[in-house]
Amino acid sequence: MLKNRFLLLFSLLFASSVIITSCSKDDDDDNPPAPSEFVADDNSFASFMNWSKDATAQGADPALGGMAHGGNDETVVRDVYFKDGQAPVNGIYPVGTIIVKHSKNPEGTVDERTAMVKRGNDFNPEGGDWEWFMLAPDGKIAKDENGNAMRGAKLMNGMCLQCHTAAKAKDYVFSK
Which DSSP category does 111 fall into? Predict the structure, then answer.
């Protein structure tokens, strides 16, 4: 009888410790796994001018070849915003990184918003898995004359990728 009570007590203690251990907070809860893909939408760029402004350049930029971001206009100011001030980790930006560049000049003849998002999941392996965007003045994804969202790996007939390939060593990002 005493032996049965001992076994019952031991079994209850063992079962309780298993339940308590399985219900305890897992260390992984503090560090959830990184997403394998981030698909941006109109809300992704909301209030970008309140993000960390990590770079500003003014004037002609020969690297732009007069083609993008205000080209070689001496009066253009290019402000670059990184959501949450994101920096590369071991030289690579994490999936979900969002960068917006606002190019403008005092005359108002240049007022362009472009963005790049680290999408991941082999979306654009030849371009570091970045997706490029044109944004409307309200920060939403711009639409072309046919109503199609101006986004993708080959945006502007591949011009974004062609230019950003020059910054491949910095994960396709010029400004940080």
Answer: E
